[in-house]
Design brief:
- There is one protein chain.
- The protein is α/β, with parallel strands linked by helices and about 220 residues long.
- The chain has two domains: about 1-120, Response regulator (Rossmann fold), CATH 3.40.50; about 125-220, Orthogonal Bundle (Arc Repressor Mutant, subunit A), CATH 1.10.10.10.
- The protein contains eight helices and eleven strands.
- The strands form three sheets. A five-stranded parallel sheet has the order 2-1-3-4-5, with helices on both faces.
- Helix 2 packs parallel to helix 3 (about 60-65), helix 6 crosses helix 8 and helix 7 packs across helix 8.
- The model has no long low-confidence stretch (mean pLDDT about 90).
- This is Transcriptional regulator.
- GO terms for molecular function: phosphorelay response regulator activity; transcription cis-regulatory region binding.
- It comes from Ahrensia marina.
Amino acid sequence: MRILLVEDNEQLGEGIKTLLEQSYAVDHVLNGEDAILAVKSHTYDLAILDLSLPDMDGLDILREIRGNRLSLPVLILTARGKLDDRIAGLDRGADDYMAKPFEFSELEARIRALLRRLSMEKTSQLKLGAVQFDLRNNRVTAADTVIELSARETMVLRALMMANGRVLSKPQLLDTITNLEADVSENAIEQYVSRLRKKLHQHGIAINAARGLGYHLSETS
């Protein structure tokens, strides 16, 4: 799961990011312009949005997200705690609203609740041939046998299976396993694909290379 954190207080933002990274991949941006760019350039499962940003109001970012018909869940986390502010945020399309100061345990609980709701709205199982991917627990099986994958191999396979046969480029696959600050080369994708090929081949699944374009999945028979 990947979260976008929009918080202009760098110290607070980095503190939240560090704690959340125990369970999620987190990108932290400090202003509205970078937030909008991140949402347009990357795929997130949740956004945590401060309203009082240096270059624009967080509600304008929320309007941009909803205006583009993005279903991204948004949790507003702000010092604006009055009832009118809460109503305005929820009416603009926020999925939840928390006022500062806050307890981190409550923030975690609200994040889990939003992600559970998102998970229930999506198909919980991906299937190709004998291979099944349980999105609820990132568990991959074939004929009731667990296929052991590393965390990043799991993310790459998830992206390929969700693409439903479409070709995904190396940058697109790289985007699924890194955050904005990570220094990972596209060569790493080749390594993960190579390992996945070996693990999936015996179960009748091939990872095909479209020269110069990327990779896609297919059944071998």
